[in-house]
Amino acid sequence: MMDKTKLVRFIESELDGFKLKFLFKDKKLLNEGKFEEFARAILKRSKKSFSVMFAVALCFVSIGVLYQSNLLVPGSPLWIGLSYIFLGVSFLVISTKEYYQVRGSMTLLLYLLEADEEHEPQITSELETV
Predict the structure, then answer these.
(1) Which of 16, 48, 64, 129 could form a disulfide with 84 if both were Cys (CB 3.0 to 4.6 A apart)?
(2) Which residues cross the membrane (predicted)?
(3) Contacts by residues 80-87 (CB-CB < 8 Å, ≥ 24 positions apart)
């Protein structure tokens, strides 16, 4: 089994900006050493938040397009539509960056835990390798 302090340090280094966003349940799972449950909970929550942010970004972009085509408010200034589109695209970029950062590190943690369970240290002599 991998060392608990090394895994906690790995999680804290990978999710440096997200440490403040951990819920009490997440900190409890980390302290108890249930790393697989922790990673699965974080992955599930990040997927939900990404889908919500994607929907919000889509709404902002569609409102911006409606302003640009003068369908929502006839005679509206150009900058209002452009600002809605810019806001939607920036929401999409930020949420995508955060999602893939969390997904990559938690998937790596799951692979490390899975590989640690499968491979026990085996001692081989030089005669067996020849």
Answers:
(1) 64
(2) 50-67, 79-96
(3) 84/60, 85/60, 85/61, 87/60
